[in-house]
């Protein structure tokens, strides 16, 4: 593989292209300044304007959300995994039918494997623009987003209508639903009753891992964060590991799985027989299966990254033992 070919498999943080109309709440006050990014795979964007950096998926999707202070993402649910880690800022995640069942605050480097089948939302509670990176289960990311009814109703009041085909139409731009396409129906009370509202302590205990805990656990070997034996025991169709300078293989290695490197802190050198690339915080690199390579920090100081690998497990609801 040439350096030029490898560069096509790297999405640089500084090259990310945002979409400001990706979801139904794009015009709703309080949510109208967020930016969404699709890094690997199409994600769950409802807008044809969303730019996709790498279209081929390794069994899961990689995306990101950027928001200024006090901006929030509205209550929604997914049928497959939605995992976030905080790259920049301080974020509050909340869940439940009205967003009042529980909440947790995440700092930089913390990771949250949000249980499938619950309504969830999040907001930037920091003092500057924040960024969270996302891993979504499945090649098609579970078939889209399920919105809480009040989100759809609020969006309609501000000019955005979601069709039953999963596409957004902006009435402020004169767009209307195509012939034969009805608006996305609201969930009934019976359907809403099927969405659980887990207790706060259980969610924080079983689905959240803290950055400095992972740093300590990865001092000598990779820390499995999400997996059957991970800190957050789950089998959503992928595994997540956390690596520091002390947990890296001493020699060149190769994997049979797709290996997605997502840099948290520090600069890293990725080397292979055809060349070398440097990865910076916020960069995402898709290392192809079977490529023998080395991975080392490029300089002294704090260095950490998340490594995501596809598995044979079905991308479905959160697994519990």
Automatic annotation (TrEMBL):
Gene Ontology MF terms in the entry: isomerase activity; metal ion binding
Tagged with keyword Metal-binding: yes
Domain Cupin type-2 per the UniProt entry, residue ranges: 69-132
Domain of life according to the entry: Bacteria
InterPro entries from the UniProt entry: Cupin_2, GPI/OXD, RmlC-like_jellyroll, RmlC_Cupin_sf
UniProt entry keywords in alphabetical sequence: Isomerase, Metal-binding
Database matches in PANTHER family: OXALATE-BINDING PROTEIN (PTHR35848)
Descriptive protein name: Mannose-6-phosphate isomerase-like protein (Cupin superfamily)
Upper lineage: Bacteria, Pseudomonadati, Pseudomonadota, Alphaproteobacteria, Hyphomicrobiales
């Amino acid at each position: 593989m040439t350096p030029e070919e490898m560069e096509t498999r790297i999405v640089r943080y500084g090259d990310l292209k945002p979409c400001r109309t990706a979801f139904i709440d794009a015009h709703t006050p309080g949510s109208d300044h967020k930016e969404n990014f699709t890094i690997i795979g199409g994600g769950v964007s409802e807008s044809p304007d969303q730019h996709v950096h790498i279209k081929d998926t390794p069994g899961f999707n990689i995306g990101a959300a950027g928001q200024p202070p006090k901006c929030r993402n509205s209550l929604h649910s997914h049928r497959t995994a939605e995992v976030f880690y905080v790259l920049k800022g301080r974020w509050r995640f909340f869940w439940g039918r009205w967003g009042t069942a529980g909440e947790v605050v995440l700092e930089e480097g913390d990771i949250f494997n949000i249980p499938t089948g619950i309504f969830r939302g999040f907001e930037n509670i920091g003092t500057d623009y924040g960024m969270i990176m996302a891993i979504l289960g499945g090649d098609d990311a579970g078939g889209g987003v399920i919105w809480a009814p009040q989100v759809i109703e609020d969006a309609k009041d501000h000019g955005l209508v979601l069709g039953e085909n999963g596409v957004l139409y902006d009435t402020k731009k004169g767009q209307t639903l195509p012939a034969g396409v009805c608006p996305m129906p609201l969930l009934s009370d019976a359907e809403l009753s099927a969405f659980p509202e887990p207790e706060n302590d259980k969610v924080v205990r079983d689905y959240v891992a803290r950055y400095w805990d992972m740093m300590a656990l990865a001092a000598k070997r990779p820390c499995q964060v999400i997996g059957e034996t991970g800190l957050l025991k789950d089998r959503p169709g992928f595994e997540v590991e956390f690596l520091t300078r002390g947990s890296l293989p001493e020699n060149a290695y190769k994997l049979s799985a797709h290996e997605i490197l997502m840099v948290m802190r520090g600069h890293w050198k990725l080397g292979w027989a055809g060349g070398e690339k440097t990865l910076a915080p916020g960069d995402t690199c898709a290392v192809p299966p079977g490529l023998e390579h080395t991975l080392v920090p490029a300089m002294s100081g704090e260095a950490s990254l998340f490594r995501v690998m596809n598995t044979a497990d079905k991308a479905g609801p959160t697994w519990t033992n």
